[in-house]
Every structure is written in structure tokens, then in C-alpha cells.
Design a protein that fits this description.
alpha/beta; Rossmann fold; 2 domains; seven-stranded mixed β-sheet; 13 helices; 16 strands; elongated
Length: 402
Amino acid sequence: MAFAIVLAASFTLLACAAPEESTTEPPADAVTFAIGFGGPLTQGDVAFGQGARRAVVLAIEQANASARAHEAGIQFRVADGDDQSRADRGIAVANTLVSLDDIVGVVGHFNSSVSIPVSQVYAEAGIVQISYASTSPDLTAQGLDNVFRTCATDLLQGPVAAQSALDLDLQKTFVVDDSSIYGHGLTNEFSRAFSALGGTILGTASTEQGQTDFSAVIAEISELEPDFVYFGGTYSAETGNGAAFSRQLAEGGVTVPLMGGDGIQNDAFISEAGPLSEGDMATKPGTPLSDLPKGEEFTQAYSEMFPGHTPGGFDAFAFDAANAIINAVFDVADERGSTDDITSPEGRRAIIQAVQTIQFEGVTGPISFDAFGDSNNPTITTYVVREGKWIPHPDLRHGATE
């Protein structure tokens, strides 16, 4: 399988004035619509969920301060849905969100194992759903016309990881997944590409969600002496526990790198795995914010609104997902000449149709969706832990696209 490596082109941020730049107040009779947020906020992969929520709040605040919102008489609010990285919680969240009279769309969810089952709830209610982080191809393969995502999928992420490993002369691996939809899907795509490109898979194993003791599989891995271990799962203790796995590998004498996907590419992985995570690698959808023309602007606005925080994980994808819904609502209001009935079944159907054809310049690049609801701008970057920080791997070019 061949891959081209491209660098991001020059893009501009969605033209919404920042709150401090607004010189007008919204009309007293402005109509407020809710944008739902679905993700892990108190348990599960909370570092990803909390950051993405902050990005959605930023998008809403910018939109509310914009001239377009003032002229349309529209304001937005966030409606939180804490799914705790669990499918059952996610379904409860989705049912609550679709019951809101003012809901116009949902930015969510993070985990593929949550996004896929909840998509049926949103589809039945006729509510647009845009995931900011679920990379399983199965999400959009369902054929639901209300489901979209702003990030790339594992159909690209797995093969890019395989190519990156071989480019670093890592020829032999042992593959481990966390028994989740995401973990299985990612390792399948990686393994298929790695073998096709000439790599050797020495063995495979599945761990359990929330597992804390990996000694048995580590003993097996140690005997086979791989060049690296590939892991499909997330960092957190409640889900894949990739951070503990990384630490226990090194403690057990397996000192080769752990390589994973976007589920471990978070500062929380490093803090939980500790210094033994040095040299671990991960692929993640998107191009580093530092390489995007509006990345600095987004980072500054984010940090100003949330002091002590900088964008991470999938925050920029959540920001762009929120703005896709916001722009769609504005477009529907403009087309109808009124905010009346936007939350009616017909109005919500019009929002879905508007998202299907949306085009604007987001932080992560040009935002538009293909016939399946996937991003037309799929890119993947390979990172490595150096001196306690995730950095784009200096020996690899980034922004890989198929």
C-alpha cells in the first residue's frame, strides 16, 4: 500500500469574532439553541472529554459574539452529556439530549464504542451527530445520513502506524488490543498493513477493559523479543489502561517502544505511565496545531478562555465540529428567513442536509464531508514521547494522507 505525505495548506479560522471583540449585544428576544456535547467528563478518558468540551464552549462563545448571531437573533448554549466512556451511559446521555426542546445537534462522542450505539438514538430523533474523535470505520459505515466526523479513521491511522514503524526499521511486533470496538478495529487495520508491507507479527493478545495486571501477556511478549509492541486501546485506567501497560512492560524488562493510536496520545498517558513512557509512540488524526496557520490563534483563544489549559487531544476537531453545527443552523435560518421551527422535525432535517454540504475553513483545515459523513481532509501524524512530552516524531514527516 502506498502513501503520499503532504503538508497542510494555508487555511483561515472560521470568521467568528472573539467575545472580547464584540461591540454589540444580542437582541433581547434572541432565540437560544442547545448544542449537545457527548464525552467522558468524570470517568473514563476524561482528559480527552474535558478538553473537547472546552473547545465546544469556545466555539459557542465566539459564535454568540459574532455579527452573524446578532443579525440572526440566535444564541447557543452547551448541553453536557457525561458518557464516562461507557455505551450504556452514552445511550442515557443521548436520550436526554434528544429530549431537549432546543437541541439542534450533538458534538459527540469520543469513544467509538459509545458513538456507534448512540448514533441510532440520534438517527431516530433526526438530530445531527458529529464525532470529534471516534475513528472506527464502523461509525459511518452504518449508512446513517445524520452521522459525521471531523477526524480521520482507522482505515488511515492503522496503515500510517505500520508504515511509520517500518520507516524506523522496526520490523517485528507483538499486537495487543483492549477488547473494545476501537481497539479491535485499530489493531486489525494496523496488522493488515504491517504484514502487507513486509513486517512480522510475532503474536497477538487481547486484554480486558480496566485490566490492571498485564504480567501474563508481558511474559509472553518478553520471550518473543519484538522490536516494538503495538497497542490498540486508550490510556485510562477505566478503559484500555494503556498507561499502566506501558509502565509494566518496561518494569517487566520489555524495554522496546509501545506504539498505539490516538487513544494514548494524551499528556495523561505520560503522567500516568511516568518516565518509562519515554520513546513510546502514537499516531493521531490531524496535523500539529503548530503547523497550522490558525493553530496559534486557536491556542491563544483557548488558553485565554481557560487559563492553565492548552488544546490537546481532539480539541480542535471538537471546535470544528461545533462550528459545523453552528454554521448549519445559521444557514438554515438564513434560508428560511426566520428562526421559527428550526427545532421542528423539518428544521432538524434541514440542519442535517446543511451539514452534508457544509464547507468552511476550520482550525484543522477545510471542513466538508463525503457521502458517508467522513472528513474530506483526513490526515495522520506520528508522535513520540521525548523528555516527557509528545512531539511529532523528528525522524518522520507528518500529515500523512492516503
